[in-house]
Structures are given as C-alpha cells and as structure tokens.
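ok posting inputs for the iron/sulfur cluster job
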Amino acid sequence: MVAFRSARLNFYLNTTLFESKPNFEKENSNGSRRIFLMPERCTACMLCMVACAVEHTSSLNPSSARLRVENKLPTAEVIFLENCDLCESLGVDMPACVQKCPKGALRLR
Amino acid sequence: MKGGYIGKILVVDVGDGSYKVIDWTTEKDEWLKFIGGRGFGAKMIWEHTGKYTDPLGPENILVLAAGPLTGLPVPGPRISVCSLSPLTGIWGDSAVGGYAGLKLKQCGYDAVVIKGWRKKFAYLYVSDDCVELRDASHIVGKGSIEAQEELRKEHGSGVATLTIGPAGENLVLFACVTSDYGRQSGRTGTGAVMGSKGLKAVVFDGDAEVPVADREGLLRLLEEAKERIIENRELFGQFSRYGTMMTLDWAQDVACLPTRNFAESVFEGAEGISASTVEMKVMRGKRGCFACPIACRTISEVKLNGETFYLDGPEYETMALLGSNLGVSNVDDLVAAHYLCDHYGMDAISAGVVVGFAIECAQRGLLTLDGLKPEWGNRDTILSLLERIAYRRGIGGILAEGVRRAAEIIGGGCENYAMHVKGLEQSGYETRAAPGMSLAYGTCDVGAHHNRSTIIGWESRNDRLGTGREKVEVQILLQHQRSLFDALGVCRFPWCETKLPFEYYVGFYVAATGINLSEKEILKASERIFNLTRMISVRRGVSRKDDYPPKRVFNEPLPSGPFKGVKLDAESYERMLDTYYELRGWSRDGIPTREKLEELGILELVEKGI
Ligand code: SF4
Ligand code: SF4
Ligand code: SF4
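and the output
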C-alpha cells in the first residue's frame, strides 16, 4: 500500500473536514428526543437505511426503512418518514440509524 | 434459489419494445458456473453474438448484469455493462457503481439484456411490475447528468438511472454509460452501443427485497468486515479521505505517472493536481456508493464559463489522463475537463489518451488541430477538443474513433504515439520500467486497462524490473481475483485498498446464496470467465499478435526520472508472454487449449459457438 508523504494528510486524518450546521431533523412529540443530520458529513451511503430496515422490519431492504437518503450535489439529503418513531418503540438509547452511520452524520440530541 | 440471485433475466428488444423474462434457474448449473455480473455477460455474449457481429449493429447485445452480492448491503453494488466493444471489436465490459446495481436487483432481475435497435431515441423504464419503452425526445441531446436529473424529476429521486450523453448519441467509440452524477461504466465504449440501439437511458425503479440465504450470517460477517476495514486506521483514514486520488503521489514517487502522452513517467507539475491540492481548492464533499462505509468518492466544484457545476470526481485515473498526461498542472483545468467528459458521456481515460495523442501528433507536424494551439496544458485546446470529439466536429470526427483508428486514418508514422492495446486506450500507468504492468496491459481481456491486474504495486514493492516466473504467477492470480469482483457485482476497493481479506468475499457469497464454494472454486470460476472472454475475442481474431503493449514502450527509452534510459526489452517480454500462456494452459499463440477448456467445464459451450 501507498506510503503517503504529505504531513498535511496525517494532520487531517482524524479531524473534521467540513463545518456544518444541523439540518434535516426529526423530533418526538414531547421534544425530548431529536435526530438531526449534518449534511456535509453525509456521504449518501444509505447504511442508516439498512440499519433501520434491519431493526424494524428484519429485512435488508433499504426501501422499507423509515428514512430516505437522497444523493444530491453538493450535499445529500435525509428525510425522515411519518412512521419513524425515533426508535422509541425499541426502547433503545441510540436509534439504529444514528448508531450505524459510519460518518457520524446523524446525531441524537 | 435461496438468495443472492433473483433467478430472472429481462430481455428487451428496443426495436418494438417487446420483452421476455428468462428464468435461468431451470438451467441453474450452467449459469452458476459463471457466478454473475461479467460472467453472465460473457455467457450471453458468447451465445448470442458471433465472429461477424457488428458491435454497433442490431445483432450486438448490451448486457447490464448485476452479481449475487449486488443489492445486498455489501459495500458498493456494481453493474457490469458488457457487450462487443465498438472501440476494440472484441469483448468489452466495464462496471458502474453508485446505486444502480441495487435498484436493478430491486426490480427483480439479475440482469437486463438490450437487443435490436430503433431509429428514434427512447428510454427504458423498468420497475417491479412494469417494463416499458418511453419516448425520450425531451432528453435527447442533453448531457448525461442533465438527462439523469430530468428523469429523476419525472420518476422521483429514488430511482437509479443509466444515461448516455451526446457522445453516446453520436457514437463516439469510447462513449460511456453514466449513473448517479458521475459513476461511469467508462471503458470499451458501451455508451456507443447504447446509442446505436437508440436507447438514451434506462430507469430502474424497484423497491423489492433482494433475497438472502443466511441473513444473520451475512450481517454478522458485514459487521466484522466493517470493523476490519476501520480498524486499519491509517489506510482507512487516507483512503476514505482521498480515495484513489492518493495514487497520484505514489505514481509520481515510483515513476509510473503517464506524462505528456506517456512520453515520460514523472510530471514536474504533479503537486498542482495532487490529492491535497484537490482537497484544498475544489473538494466540497465525499460520497459513498450504497452500503459503503469508506466513501472514497470526491465531490468537487467546477467553474466553467462563469457557472458553477459539481463533479463526482476526480479520481486517480482522470487525474493522470486528463492531468499529467496532458501536461495539466492546474486543478481547476483538470476538473473542468473531467466534468466535460462526464457531461458529454465519454470515457475520461480514453479521452485523455486521445487528446494527448492529438497534441503530440500536432506538435510533430502530423496533424493540425482546427487552429487550436498544440500546447501541453492548454485549457482551451483540451476543452475544445473534448467538445469536438463529443459532437464529431472537425478533427473530433477522427479522434472520436479512438487512437487506433485515428492513427490509421492520419498515418505518417503516428501509430508510434498511439497508446493502446487491442484498440483500448491505456489507463494511468506508464510501463516502460514495469514489465509486469506491461504484461498486465498486454493480456487484460478488454485491452489496456488496469481493472484485471495492477501488478505495478507488487512490482514496485518487490521486483520492479524483473521478468521472472513469480511475477507472471502473481499476475494471473490478480487477474482472477480482481475480475471476480465484477462477477460478484461489488466494489473491489475494500479488498484491494483497505485490505479487507479476500476470504470475506467468499464468505459473503456463501452467506448470500447458500451455495458452498471454497476460495479455490470461486477463483476457478473467475478463471473460467476469463477464458470465455478470451474465447469471445479469439473468435473475433485475437491471438498472440494482439497481446503486446504499445510500440512506444519498446522503442523509446524514458527521457527522464529515476528510470531514465530504460525501455521494455522485447525479448524478455516474449519470454514473459510464453510463461504466461504456459501457466494459463493456452497455446503458444495465446489460444486456450481444448484441455484447459475441458478442465474448466466450458468445452461444450465453446464448441457450440465456434
Ligand atoms: S430513528 Fe429509528 S425508526 Fe427512525 S429512521 Fe432511525 S432507525 Fe428508523
Ligand atoms: S449512514 Fe450516515 S453518511 Fe450514510 S447516508 Fe446515512 S446519514 Fe449519510
Ligand atoms: S470504496 Fe469507493 S467506489 Fe468502492 S463502494 Fe466505496 S465509495 Fe464506492
């Protein structure tokens, strides 16, 4: 494998590239739980959709997930559907989509 | 079938829009031998085309084939777009990533085959319960990305599209098929085949589930694989940040960076187009294909005629061929050229080689460029040439035929500067000081492409200038391993770039399909496919005489860099080729022997088609 020379690169390895403001979000009825996306971090990989489908429908079909990722340029979009319950029905601290997002683009607050 | 596979192939005749669905599970043993993806493509092209089939005629077929892992959450679904290539006249396949593979499988097919042809452009709409040819007059003439956006407006943004641009419509022989903004089935001119059929686009609008044999097992393996990828922090960090772009610095270091039409192998302006420059100046985000935690793709900003566009790129190949190979050391010019290639829908690798060839020939007085200045790195010349090629205007009409034909037409000794093997323009490695990589280009089944083997990496680590047997052995293993990913229908980068062990992919296959294959058997299947694609080309006249790298590699010593004075030794190349054929079980003339075909279990199939 390539031994990369640039010192800048090593500096960047574990830092955030893009500053972003929270956007696309979903909140539960009493406002105690909220998920939001940091769009510049999202790579449109749809692993959040896979995670949601696995948790809620026991299938691997991203189309049955309760959120949609749309690959747009320059930033992707995430839309939570009506039936997303922020995983409250599962009784877990961390919603599946948030937990499985490899880029930390989905956040829980 | 228990999973992975759907069991159905859709065959559409674009002439009248009729279609049929083949249930291949009735002959399942015959198909499973070929795994899927390019393997299925090879089987169908062997059976349905012949020695005299015109690649741009109605008898040629275009196969869009997914593999058994495509559409499952294995990183990076791939569709192999397979056909007889109009550029090379022989077998051609190229894999396209993004989401299209997922959506194709979700429509309920393993593959879609396009046959026939029509006069007026149409597009094909496929969903779980509908197959329809629709009028395409509103998108004809549009760039491949514009056409995609138009279709997504019409059918919802959840669909996946494969489109061609003006280059495909105008039968530029290296036109490509585009998906998701800038994922390309780049090589071998599949876009021209699509254009010749009068098909502007294919829309996949499926939502069905892709079946899987052992869901829990697959999920467990995937989770483990993700850990393995991420745990390799440095590699993962670099590759997900820079993707293949980081290869540029490496290629410069080890002196294999094609520079000014492959005349040299180091580029003094590499810094100006390197990964860190891209990041500082034009990068605006990262993208991953479906289910890929790596996300190696770069989104960058392009300024063209005062307007801003976004590009899904660049990546190493485009940086090398549209960058150093054209003497471009300004990243803005590089992304502009890349964007135009994507917009017109033509292969940026071939386009880079063709433009480089034109500039060099013009400098040597063999050609005039319609008044454009034949200067390296001249933005105007490069962008204008790309446009002329896409619309086949002026000199572009000749260049649109690819370097091999262009050199024949122009004459005057310019074939010495035509960088191609079997008619396919050479991709981004200069090989005078890399005999193994020369052999990789010489023997790759589609022509001078690195998708079957990039032994240059191994070479530069172990034995750069050697021509021994071990190198040839590694080469053959790589050809089987790398092309297997196009049969499985997934991206190979997690394996070859972030070092996910190969066994995982065998594991994925077993978990997905419930079919127990060992690593050895699955590599055998890959060898089987490689031999069949070779036979497709052999049937159309290919033999030893075609398995040589471009003339320049033998004739001109490198003028600069650490390997100054080195050129490829013809005699040792012959010896390597002999060894290669011997190890492959091919005759001295490069034809698979009866015994080999028998051993691979395809003798009967081959005999039927000869
Ligand atoms: S919060 Fe839970 S239900 Fe809502 S999209 Fe995420 S995983 Fe699905
Ligand atoms: S998993 Fe994260 S990065 Fe991937 S699409 Fe979902 S939000 Fe975006
Ligand atoms: S590694 Fe890159 S090309 Fe491969 S699936 Fe991931 S994002 Fe796509």
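notes: The mean pLDDT of chain B is 96. Chain B has 26 helices and 17 strands.
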